[in-house]
Write a structure and sequence with these properties.
Blueprint lengths: L1 H12 L20 H14 L2 E9 L2 E11 L4 E7 L5 E6 L2 E6 L4 E6 L14 H4 L3 E11 L2 E10 L6 E7 L5 E7 L5 E12 L18 E5 L1 E3 L5 E3 L7 E9 L11 E8 L4 E8 L9 E3 L2 E8 L2 E7 L3 H10 E3 L6
Length: about 325
């Protein structure tokens, strides 16, 4: 169905990696330095070289992938291989990402410097995060054969989800993460099953698809956009505008021209909400959809179609959707 295709595109474009297996018994004493804990985990993911296999679960979907990361004097090279289902491969060199789809003999070239993948989950402004989440230390656990220190972030309101993170006690690399619903149920999780930290050879981050002659090449551009005139009249506490970009989604089925979409991105430093704005057409659907921690809702606004996607409860998505408004930036 066309609605399903729209959902897949929106989910693929979603800005954050809110990737979040079983719950360890928590220690009741507060963690001594949560800001330092977050900063150490974030620094380790960006500073170190590593190779590992992880399992990611969102709702009923489970996927196994392998990630390899190497640093050079000029940039970071990262290779992600999807090990389940049809072969897929992603190679990021600095800000450029190339997506390989060998079954379709197709590749997509994209530039997006701000998005990261597990285990590089960014804690943006961690001091602000702690205004909206309480912190609880979890019992020491073992993940992928490594001793892991755990931290729980529990929301102070019902407008966002809770999280649990476990980091390698020695290196600080994030090993396992969970997202919890308003009822405390795990709705999304990701965890390494094998990880090696240390020197990575250049051959390990090269694509396995060296001959792409005859493949279809698509450019998925995302450029910074001038003020669009769109704004959210209401956002949960701590959520702020992060950026506005214009995206070209490529050619929809049975249509001639690529679709241009404006994306507004908001975040509280941990979770993200995106609003995709495009021209309205009858093929759009407004029913709410949930996949793991992601909730999506569409609505018509005059000649525009708005798709609101976020790693927050549906009640939050609904309130953001109802508050969206447009004021022509050229009119005072």
């Amino acid at each position: 169905m066309r609605g399903s295709a729209t959902l897949r595109k929106a989910l693929l474009l979603l800005v954050h990696a809110g990737f979040w297996v079983f719950s360890a018994t928590a220690a009741e004493s507060p963690i001594s330095d949560p800001l330092g804990w977050m900063n150490r985990s974030q620094s380790a993911a960006q500073r170190l070289e590593y190779a590992g296999t992880f399992v990611y679960q969102r709702g009923s979907q489970v996927r196994t992938s392998r990630i390899t990361r190497m640093r050079t004097t000029k940039s970071v090279i990262e290779k992600l291989e999807v090990l389940d289902g049809q072969s897929q491969e992603y190679v990021r060199n600095g800000d450029e990402i190339i997506h390989y789809f060998p079954a379709e003999r197709r590749l997509i070239v994209e530039r997006r410097g701000s998005e990261r993948s597990f285990p590089d989950i960014r804690f943006t402004h961690p001091q602000e995060i702690l205004r909206y989440y309480t912190v609880r230390q979890l019992a020491i656990d073992r993940v992928a054969g490594r001793e892991a220190l755990g931290l729980a972030l529990e929301p102070r309101d019902g407008l966002r989800y809770g999280y649990r993170f476990w980091c390698d006690r020695v290196s600080g690399v994030l090993l396992r993460a969970q997202t919890l619903s308003e009822k405390g149920e795990i709705i999304e999780q990701i965890a390494f099953t094998q990880l090696s930290i240390g020197k990575v050879r250049p051959s390990q981050v090269k694509t396995s698809h060296t001959n792409t002659r005859g493949w279809r090449i698509e450019n998925a551009s995302a450029t910074a956009n001038e003020p669009s005139g769109w704004k959210a009249g209401w956002l949960p506490g701590g959520f702020k505008p992060v950026r506005t970009v214009k995206r070209v989604l490529g050619r929809p089925e049975n249509a001639g021209e690529p679709r241009e979409v404006i994306q507004l991105v908001f975040s509280d430093g941990l979770a993200g909400i995106s609003v995709f704005i495009e021209a309205w057409s009858p093929r759009h659907e407004s029913l709410p959809v949930q996949q793991g921690s992601l909730n999506m809702l569409g609505k018509r606004h005059g000649k525009f179609w708005l798709t609101i996607v976020g790693e927050v409860p549906l009640v939050t998505i609904r309130q953001v959707a109802e508050s969206l408004e447009f004021a022509d930036p050229g009119v005072n």
